[in-house]
Amino acid sequence: MTDPVLIAITDLDGCTEQRLLERWEALASAAAPGTVAIQLRGQHRPARPLLELGRRLRATATAFGQWLIVNDRLDLAVLLEADAAHLGEASVQTHDARRLIGDRPVFRACHDPQAALSSDADAVLLSPVFDARKGRPPLGLAALQRAAAGRARVYALGGVTSENAAACRANGAAGVAAIGAVFGDTNPRALIRALGIAR
User: Distance from the CA of 184 to the CA of which of 91, 130, 163, 193 falls in 20 to 30 A?
Assistant: First the structure.
């Protein structure tokens, strides 16, 4: 598979499961194969319903040739045959994750451009780029550019919209990750068009 250009991160607190599934199918069907990923994130959620949701996300990903990434739950990543795993900054070490998931790519959250340069993950999600989050000020495009100049596969996260997504790519990002721009009130297909990945 090619690297995804858009990573849609699930928000089970702010979005119903039905809306999530509908939006994911709309994205997966509208984007060129291999260009969009769904990241299953279910912090503090029981494993069984998360696995069931993951199976439905996996089915859609397979039907349209897209990615499934599982956040932190490496057991579920294996069971779902996920295409990649995503690790938080406080999660297990990258090499430990690879012992469980094999040669599948490992993505990792990062909030510091310098740390992004030294990460041993296959890709990093750098945040927050545009909007302040959890007490962290926005890093801005200059920080994204510095991180992307020193390594391949840096994704911009944090306030990404259809209006600024192309600027992330122009500043070296492999792609963008988004929650609100996909599962919020805006039309998620606008993001696909802005990134130039329409089917």
Answer: 91
